[in-house]
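Q: I'm building a small set of examples for a reading group on sequence design. Run inverse folding on the following structure and report the sequence directly after it, with nothing in between.
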């Protein structure tokens, strides 16, 4: 009866949260896939055959996120290549997290008068904060949403049953935390959060609280074991962090200063999220260190004197530690990112909920109105995200020295038929040091669209030279040149070019034996039967079985009969 009444009291607040969240992210479904990560994720889903064994027991890479892969496979099954469905799933996960925060806050503040209002404020802040918009609007950032959902489920069990836990509660914590870790490693922070929170509940029942703490530790250990490919060794991601930090320490660089500055930056970002930036490459180091020196002691005072602040502060402080480690290990494609604060934002939202108990003189309607105003920058950002050229242009404007943003902007210009702008953005990326195959390919495409074929060919050659898989680029180049030069009087010159590119492709990738066959066939078409025989014979001598070998023998027989070797 009590739980039914409690739910009825919560319904109006949940409706407010739902409506506010839907309005804030109404434009999210209009966004497409980002050229950064989203398109690569789609290509991987299409080209890779997954099995549960491979997904869960593969291990060994920089990232181990099997449940994320499964979630995208479901999206692929239901929505295909339509980005709208992927975005709607992200929004639904974010709203679900908002509801879970509401429930968690009510449990955390269950002894306080006004807990429903505090829970409403915490949930509204989390759902509407523009700081969380990156994680919601970027399809590939679903890892943060899903990871936080399972982490919240674990925390709800800990807070609700922390005083008198049962074995089933420990099992729930184990499963929820393991699932969270299998989405993203950020929730490893709960390895510190849960035991420390339980330790501060008081001495009574301390031994029983091990029922919750031990499963949390076990979940992290099992996760690390699976991540390391079931071997007692560090996987590529962990090893990279350790090696980079060790190198920095041995080189006597200011690794402590870097860590403090990064930590202070994230603390400041929680308090003041503006300006919003998808690609944060540089920070005000002095300001960040000052924020650290001021806010950490303040957090310590609050932790000791204000018991309701302990779980929120633990979530903030431990949650920020993981992004700082990733920054030191140079794993992310940008040094800092707003999406890394999605889990720590749970703590900040709960802390704001705590604060409502201390500002009772402020009318509640004003507090709610202030929180609802946060929807405005979130709505604006969702609109910006729906326009990829404006989105990447905004990033370039804020980070003019960030080469990858110029490269991404070039790709969007190209997709929208703005070829002159695509060329300029590609050249900007190259000048800033992004000498990568995809940049040269975009530059080549901008030339091809404007029929600047010599410049197209030069750019494609350079793309192949810097690519780790050049064979496909040479093949594309041959096909395009065939449409341009492969007719009439230009045909012999085209054949000689194509022969050179086929042999280049084989030189870089010896599994591409078609390069030998195609080169030999073109030499035969040119009447250069000596070269044709040499390359076709090399093709036949290759140990790999190939359907074209029978055609190579036919050509060699014709050459032999003609006697013109």
């Amino acid at each position: 009866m009590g739980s039914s009444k409690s739910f009825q009291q919560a319904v109006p607040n949940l409706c407010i949260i739902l409506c506010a969240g839907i309005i804030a992210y109404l434009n999210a479904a209009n966004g497409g896939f980002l050229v950064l990560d989203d398109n690569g994720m789609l290509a991987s889903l299409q080209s890779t055959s997954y099995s549960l064994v491979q997904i869960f027991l593969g291990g060994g890479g920089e990232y181990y996120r099997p449940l994320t892969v499964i979630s995208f496979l479901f999206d692929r099954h239901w929505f295909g290549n339509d980005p709208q469905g992927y975005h709607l799933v992200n929004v639904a996960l974010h709203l679900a997290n908002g509801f879970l925060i509401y429930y968690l806050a009510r449990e955390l503040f269950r002894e306080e008068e006004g807990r429903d209002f505090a829970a409403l404020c915490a949930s509204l802040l989390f759902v509407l904060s523009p700081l969380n918009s990156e994680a919601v609007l970027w399809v590939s950032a679903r890892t943060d949403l899903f990871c936080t959902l399972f982490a919240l489920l674990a925390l709800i069990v800990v807070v609700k049953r922390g005083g008198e836990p049962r074995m089933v509660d420990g099992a729930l914590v184990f499963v929820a935390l393991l699932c969270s870790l299998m989405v993203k490693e950020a929730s490893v922070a709960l390895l510190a959060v849960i035991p420390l929170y339980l330790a501060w509940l008081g001495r009574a029942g301390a031994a029983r609280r091990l029922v919750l703490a031990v499963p949390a530790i076990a979940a992290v250990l099992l996760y690390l074991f699976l991540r390391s490919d079931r071997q007692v060794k560090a996987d590529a991601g962990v090893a990279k962090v350790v090696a980079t930090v060790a190198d920095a320490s041995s080189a006597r660089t200011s690794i402590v200063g870097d860590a403090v500055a990064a930590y202070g930056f994230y603390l400041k970002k929680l308090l003041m999220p503006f300006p919003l930036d998808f690609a944060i490459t540089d920070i005000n180091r002095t300001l960040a260190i000052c924020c650290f020196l001021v806010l950490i002691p303040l957090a310590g005072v609050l932790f000791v004197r204000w018991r309701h602040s302990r779980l929120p502060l633990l979530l903030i402080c431990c949650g920020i530690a993981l992004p700082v480690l990733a920054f030191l290990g140079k794993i992310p494609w940008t040094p800092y990112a707003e999406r890394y604060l999605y889990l720590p934002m749970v703590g900040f939202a709960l802390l704001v909920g705590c604060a409502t108990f201390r500002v009772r003189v402020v009318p509640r309607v004003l507090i709610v109105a202030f929180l609802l105003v946060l929807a405005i920058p979130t709505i604006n950002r969702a609109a910006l995200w729906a326009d990829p050229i404006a989105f990447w242009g905004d990033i370039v404007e804020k980070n003019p020295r960030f080469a990858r943003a110029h490269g991404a902007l070039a790709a969007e210009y190209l997709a929208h038929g703005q070829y002159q702008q695509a060329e300029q953005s590609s050249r900007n990326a190259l000048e800033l040091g992004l000498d990568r195959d995809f940049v040269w390919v975009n530059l080549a495409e901008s030339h091809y669209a404007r029929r600047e074929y010599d410049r197209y060919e030069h750019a494609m050659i350079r793309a192949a030279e810097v690519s780790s898989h050049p064979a496909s680029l040479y093949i594309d180049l041959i096909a395009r040149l065939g449409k341009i030069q492969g007719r009439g009087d230009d045909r012999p010159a085209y054949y000689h070019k194509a022969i050179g590119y086929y042999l280049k492709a084989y030189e870089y990738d010896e599994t591409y034996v078609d390069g030998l066959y195609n080169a030999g066939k073109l030499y035969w078409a040119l009447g250069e039967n000596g070269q044709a025989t040499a390359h076709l014979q090399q093709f036949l001598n290759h140990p790999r079985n190939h359907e074209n070998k029978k055609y190579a023998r036919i050509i060699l027989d014709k050459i032999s009969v003609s006697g013109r070797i």
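The chain has a mean pLDDT of 90.
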